[in-house]
Design a protein that fits this description.
The chain is α/β, with parallel strands linked by helices. It is 48% helix and 14% strand. The chain folds into three domains: 84 residues, Phosphorylase Kinase, domain 1 (2-Layer Sandwich); 236 residues, Aminoglycoside 3'-phosphotransferase, Chain: A, domain 2, CATH 3.90.1200; 122 residues, no CATH class.
Length: 481
């Protein structure tokens, strides 16, 4: 978004703020963006303060404003709507501050202390009020994009996961068989009672803490749905890293509180709950794939290993139905893949990640969040893969090494690569940087890229006392990974 449009938004908000408060603004700050396209501005004057919101999605604005007013009737801790100008896509709301539950978890040395645990219990108690009490009288015609979390909604989430995560992760699957399993999986989910308000994005970043009480935001995507989905969203939020025993305790607490309002079969409730955990995990990974692997936003890429960790736990402890063979196969393959292993740098020193890959597939993903480094294209060099006698070998084999090292172009290329790499390594060491990625790509990811990845790894190890992690991304009949 360019500065002129932000300036215009600020001008509109200033006008609205004065209309509401009768005061001139002393300070207005553009707050950092999150995963949405909404823009937030913290506004202060001598006697008042508010959050200004700009969002060009009229349906979302109407849903948030109407839902907020409805929830206030039931004494739910949501922001008060001060003033609105929907023709200009802006409105003013109560400012709950900057402290959210997620930041409290991360700042707390004992992440899930008694204090944090108690806040989660309060949060789950309030969730029931959203779902049961406030949910009864809500106008579901306001819901966007659909009135209920129905088959179409679930298919959108699952296909989001398929096309923006499985495809990018290079996980093999049969398109039709997976589609069949998606439909069968949704049929299972739709067996759960779904006549409740579903918050949709009920997670700790959307729960602000004021005076040790949870306050709630970002429910404009809410709709009618099953109780289990929101609980799964909160307890399996991937970056929150909630221990499994805490998850189970909180789930049991939620169920006990729920029993005070409605009759439920606990065993059946948990069966559907874990099915919704899988759905939520796939939806989240789809979002990480789009925002991280497609749009190349580091924060989302760094979240992927945490999602994979939760998936592994689920597959081990609460396996999917055996009647979903292709979905089971894809998720099992994903959990076993080393493509998204998070780089560990416990020594707090520079670590070099060197990869070989094929340009026929995706570039290696930087999970460090550094976003720097180099990708060298080896395709301009002589290609031993064109000759039958070399095709069964890799860049690690002497016959390929001898072939490439006799070529003048290869020597010149290597000399330049070493010089560029050394320049960055020495500057990274000087400035205390922690991660550097260097990739070599060629047509098949077997000969030239492997040759140079191996060669640079040996060179760096011989010249510097730093950690170098070498990975060959493409499998072949020599199993070089």
């Amino acid at each position: 978004m360019n500065n002129s449009s932000i300036d215009n938004q600020i001008l509109l908000l200033k006008t609205l703020y004065k209309k509401w408060s009768g005061e001139e603004i002393n300070q207005i700050d553009n707050l950092p963006s999150s995963g949405s396209n909404r823009k937030y501005f913290r506004i202060k004057s001598s006697k008042h303060k508010a959050l200004g919101v700009y969002n060009n999605n009229l349906k979302e604005n109407k849903a948030f404003i109407k839902f907020s007013k409805h929830f206030k009737k039931y004494s739910l801790n949501v922001p008060e709507i001060y003033c609105e100008d929907l023709k200009n896509n802006i409105y003013l709301i109560e400012d709950f501050g900057d402290i959210d539950l997620f930041s409290l978890i991360k700042k707390n040395e004992n992440k899930y202390s008694t204090e944090i645990f108690d806040i989660f219990k309060k949060t789950l108690t309030e969730l029931i009020k959203f779902q049961l009490t406030a949910g009864k009288g809500i106008n579901y015609d306001l819901c966007y994009p659909r009135k209920s979390f129905d088959k179409q909604s679930m298919l959108w989430d699952l296909n989001y996961f398929k096309y923006y995560f499985l495809k990018f992760a290079d996980i093999p699957f049969d398109e039709q068989e997976l589609e069949n399993d998606f439909h069968s999986f949704i049929d299972i989910l739709l067996e759960a009672d779904n006549d409740y308000f579903m918050y949709r994005d009920f997670q700790s970043r959307n729960i602000l803490i004021r005076e040790n009480l949870p306050c709630f935001i970002d429910y404009q995507g809410g709709r009618k749905g099953a109780l289990q989905y929101d609980v799964a969203s909160l307890l399996f939020q991937v970056r929150a890293e909630m221990p499994n025993n805490i998850r189970e305790e909180l789930l049991d607490y939620y169920i006990e509180q729920l029993k005070n309002s409605i009759e439920i079969d606990e065993k059946e409730f948990k069966k559907y709950y874990y099915a919704f955990v899988y759905l939520r995990l796939m939806q989240v990974m789809g979002a990480y794939g789009f925002r991280g692997l497609y749009e190349k936003k580091a924060h989302f890429v760094q979240s992927i290993p945490f999602a994979i960790k939760n998936l592994k736990w689920m597959l081990k402890n609460h396996p999917l139905s055996e009647g979903l063979p292709e979905l089971n196969s894809a998720l099992t393959e994903l959990a076993a893949s080393n493509k998204f292993e998070a780089p560990e740098n416990s020594q707090n020193k520079l670590r070099i990640n060197i990869n070989s890959f094929s340009f026929k597939k995706a570039l290696p993903t930087d999970l460090s969040g550094n976003g720097g480094g180099f990708t060298f294209d080896c395709r301009a060099l002589p290609n031993p893969g064109r000759y039958e006698k070399y095709r069964s070998f890799t860049g690690r084999d002497k016959i390929i090494i001898d072939y490439l090292e006799k070529e003048k172009e290869v020597k010149e290329f290597g000399k330049n690569v070493f010089k560029i790499a050394e320049q960055s390594i020495e500057k990274y060491l000087e400035r205390g940087f922690k991660n550097l990625m260097i990739n070599f790509g060629c047509t098949g990811g077997q000969h030239r890229s492997v040759f140079f990845a191996e060669k640079l790894t040996k060179h760096i190890k011989s010249k510097y006392k730093i950690e170098v992690v070498l990975k060959h991304c493409e499998k072949d009949n020599r199993n070089i990974i």
